């Protein structure tokens, strides 16, 4: 007897408890050969109620390791700014600590960088997200102020290194303080063209979330928005098992289980398209989206269509609603005996020609 997929109807909110209890009992009874995977279909969705957002602003030439719309985990490398090398030979005549404050103007039309010497005393509370107006002071001595209305998007600690080159002209470098090679370079040190002044700088995700990337004429912004788990089928737990009297009794008698999903008393066994859709939605099974040469828009509400792409490939359903501007359509499909509304792109459906 081979394993098939069945669905347990459980009390909403108790799905994980049922899964944990079932896994424990399988282990205690030695039922591993009778019961396989147990899944609660979940996807990550943007958590707009959580205000925590990580933003990093990097130079245009920085290397980016993430893609827009993809999820990352805490500690993943987001980007790396390159090492910085001396462009000319000369002598270091000045090294000072500064704070680099990047302000993005209202409407995000452009940004402006302000350099504040540490010796001037940075005012407390200047951090990403703070709104500033023209004349907002940045330093305790009030010498350094904003001259634009906008929002602070980053505050960085930097070394300003001034090298007097062989032509007696000053070359100024703004280097990340944590990657500046301070053991090698001091005031008075000689520098040769091509000498490495600082190591590359990596930016890592401070928490898990979804990536957004925006480019401006001057820099790139990488933003991480926190996500939360969404249960695709509340009240359902999917179990891969051999359906015997023993396994039926085991799953039916679990706490918080109402019943095994059935029609007319007969347990519903998921077909290959249904379980494929569930696994694809969860990201457990990879699939290749086909390129559609021409997207039709002459669909009508109530029309039956065939799904030709994505997790629900090979399903048929009825159009519930559509949005031509977004190129999206809502289709009602039948999965394991119940109607489910799914949102698709117009390129994922085609007319059924009778």
From TrEMBL:
<keyword id="KW-0806">Transcription termination</keyword>
<feature type="domain" description="NusG-like N-terminal">
    <location>
        <begin position="2"/>
        <end position="282"/>
    </location>
</feature>
<dbReference type="GO" id="GO:0006354">
    <property type="term" value="P:DNA-templated transcription elongation"/>
</dbReference>
<dbReference type="Pfam" id="PF02357">
    <property type="entry name" value="NusG"/>
</dbReference>
<protein>
    <recommendedName>
        <fullName>Transcription termination/antitermination protein NusG</fullName>
    </recommendedName>
</protein>
<dbReference type="InterPro" id="IPR040473">
    <property type="entry name" value="NusG_add"/>
</dbReference>
<dbReference type="InterPro" id="IPR001062">
    <property type="entry name" value="Transcrpt_antiterm_NusG"/>
</dbReference>
<dbReference type="InterPro" id="IPR005824">
    <property type="entry name" value="KOW"/>
</dbReference>
<keyword id="KW-0889">Transcription antitermination</keyword>
<dbReference type="InterPro" id="IPR043425">
    <property type="entry name" value="NusG-like"/>
</dbReference>
<dbReference type="GO" id="GO:0031564">
    <property type="term" value="P:transcription antitermination"/>
</dbReference>
<dbReference type="Pfam" id="PF18298">
    <property type="entry name" value="NusG_add"/>
</dbReference>
<dbReference type="InterPro" id="IPR006645">
    <property type="entry name" value="NGN-like_dom"/>
</dbReference>
<keyword id="KW-0805">Transcription regulation</keyword>
<feature type="domain" description="KOW">
    <location>
        <begin position="298"/>
        <end position="325"/>
    </location>
</feature>
<dbReference type="InterPro" id="IPR036735">
    <property type="entry name" value="NGN_dom_sf"/>
</dbReference>
<comment type="function">
    <text>Participates in transcription elongation, termination and antitermination.</text>
</comment>
<dbReference type="InterPro" id="IPR008991">
    <property type="entry name" value="Translation_prot_SH3-like_sf"/>
</dbReference>
<dbReference type="GO" id="GO:0006353">
    <property type="term" value="P:DNA-templated transcription termination"/>
</dbReference>
<dbReference type="InterPro" id="IPR014722">
    <property type="entry name" value="Rib_uL2_dom2"/>
</dbReference>
<dbReference type="GO" id="GO:0005829">
    <property type="term" value="C:cytosol"/>
</dbReference>
<dbReference type="GO" id="GO:0032784">
    <property type="term" value="P:regulation of DNA-templated transcription elongation"/>
</dbReference>
<comment type="similarity">
    <text>Belongs to the NusG family.</text>
</comment>
<keyword id="KW-0804">Transcription</keyword>
């Amino acid at each position: 007897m081979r394993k098939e997929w069945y669905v347990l109807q459980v009390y909403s909110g108790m799905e994980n408890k049922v899964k944990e209890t079932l896994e424990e009992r399988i282990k205690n009874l030695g039922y591993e050969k009778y019961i396989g995977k147990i899944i609660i279909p979940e996807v990550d969705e943007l958590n707009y109620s959580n205000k925590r957002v990580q933003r990093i602003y990097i130079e245009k030439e920085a290397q980016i390791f993430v893609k827009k719309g993809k999820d990352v985990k805490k500690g993943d490398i987001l980007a790396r700014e390159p090492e910085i090398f001396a462009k000319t030979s000369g002598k270091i005549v000045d090294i000072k600590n500064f704070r680099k404050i990047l302000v993005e103007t209202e409407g995000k039309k452009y940004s402006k960088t302000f350099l504040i010497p540490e010796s001037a005393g940075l005012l407390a509370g200047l951090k990403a997200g703070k709104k500033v107006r023209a004349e907002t002071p940045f330093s305790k001595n009030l010498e350094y102020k904003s001259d634009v209305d906008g929002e602070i998007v980053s505050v960085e600690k930097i070394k300003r290194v001034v090298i007097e080159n062989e032509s007696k002209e000053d070359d100024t470098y703004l280097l990340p303080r944590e990657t500046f090679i301070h053991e090698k370079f001091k005031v008075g040190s000689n520098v040769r063209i091509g000498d490495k002044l600082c190591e590359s700088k990596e930016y890592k995700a401070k928490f898990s979330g979804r990536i957004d990337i925006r480019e401006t004429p001057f820099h790139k912004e990488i933003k991480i928005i926190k996500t939360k788990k969404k249960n695709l089928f509340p009240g359902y737990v999917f179990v891969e098992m051999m359906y015997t009297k023993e396994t039926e009794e085991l799953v039916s008698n679990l706490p918080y289980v109402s019943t095994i999903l059935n029609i007319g008393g007969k347990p519903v066994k998921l077909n290959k398209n249904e379980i494929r859709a569930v696994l694809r939605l969860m990201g457990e099974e990879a699939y290749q989206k086909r390129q559609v040469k021409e997207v039709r828009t002459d669909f009508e509400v109530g029309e039956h269509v065939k799904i030709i792409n994505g997790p629900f490939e090979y399903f048929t359903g009825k159009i519930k609603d559509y949005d031509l501007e977004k190129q999206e359509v809502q289709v009602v499909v039948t999965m394991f005996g119940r109607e489910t509304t799914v949102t698709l792109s117009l390129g994922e459906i085609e007319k059924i020609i009778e």
